[in-house]
Task: structure prediction
Amino acid sequence: MANYYIDGTTLNNATAVYMDAALTTCAPNGFYSDGISSREQVSQGSGCVLLPPQPCPTCATPCGTQITGNGAQGVYQLDMDVGGTANDTGAIIITFDPLNVPDGVQAVYDGQVYNTLSSPQFGLLESTVPGVPTYIGATGSDCGTAGGGTYPNISVFQYQGNQFVNTGQPTTVVIQQGQSQLTAGGPGDCVMVIPKPNASPAVVNFTFIGPCNGTAWNFNVQCPVTLDPISASAPQNTQAEACAAILNNTVYHVDVDPTSGVQVSDYIFSDHDAANPAPQGWYLHPTGYTYQVGPRGVVTNRQGGCNTITLQDCTNQNLYTMNDRFGTNNIGEVIQYKRINQTTQVIGTEIYCGTITNLGNTGTYTNANQVGFVDYDCNDTVHCP
Result:
C-alpha cells in the first residue's frame, strides 16, 4: 500500500494529498479517507485540491455502540452506521443523557434534521427553532445558554476509532432563543426516534455541542428495529370517550419511561418505522387504561383503567374480557361481542353472545369488544348464533 502525505494535521483540515513528504508531487485524483471522512482530490491548475469532506459509510461507527463524551468545550461530530440492507429498516432509537450540563444535540439522516427528544422526567424537549440543535440539561448547571448567545472559536472534534479527535478547524456556535430546553433537574436518558423505512442511506450524522467550559454525556444508538403493534382505539377527544371506544386501531409504542406499559413521556406512532406520530387525542389501551398523545406523538397523560366486562361464551364456555363501553349491564345478562385475534390484533366480524360473570377492572389484556348493551338469551338463535 502506498504512503500518502497531507499538508495538515488531519484529512479534514488538509488542502491536498501528496506522494512525498516534501509535498511537491500531488497524489492521483480520487477519494482519500482517514477512517472517518472521505475527500475527493481533483486537479486545480498545475496543482491539486481536496473537495469538502464527505461521510465515509464504511468508516462510520456501528450502531449499538455505547459512546461516552467527556472533554473540553466543543462541537463533537459522529457518523453512525445503521445498516444498508433490506433488513436494516424500522425505527432507530437513540438515548442521550447530557448529565446535567447543557449540550446541544441533533441528527441528520437522509437530508432531514432531527432534534426532538423526550425526557422520562419532563416529556417533550424540542427546539422551537426548526432545523437546529436542541439544548438540554439542568438549569442549575447552565452557563448562559438559556438566553442564547454566540460562542466563537469552538473546537470541532470528530469521532475516530474509539475517541474524539480535534480536527483543528474551530467554528463559531450561535444559540438562538428557543433552542434551549433546559429543565429543573437533569433530564435523564432522553430518547430520540428516527424513522428508517428504506435500506439506504446507511449513515446518520450526529452533532453534540458542549458550549460550557467542559462537557460529558452518554449516548447510545440502537440498530433499526420494526416496532411491535398494540391494539388501541381511534383517537378520542376525552378520556371518557376513550373508555367507551372500541379497539379497532393499531399503534406502535417506544418506551421512554422505563416502567412497563404506555407511560407519560413515551412515544406513540402510527407505523412500525416511526415515520408518523400518532394523532393527538385519548386512546384506549387493551388492558383497560387510557393515555393521551400530544405533539410529536409524546404521551402527556395516563389515567387508570376503565371498567371491564368478563363473560362466558354461550357456545364454547370460554371466558372473554372486554371494555365496558356502556356501563348499563349487570352480572347474569347475555350480551353480544366480537373477538379480537390475539396474533393480528384485528377485531373479527362475527358476532357472539356470552353471559356476564364479572364487572370491574381486571387490568388484563382484553380479547373482545362489546357490541351493545341489550340483554339477550343464549338460546336466541337470531341474535346469538
Q: What stands out?
A: The helical segments are 239-243. The two ends are 80 Å apart (CA to CA). The chain has four domains: 5-55, 60-221, 229-303, 308-370. The chain has one helix and 31 strands.
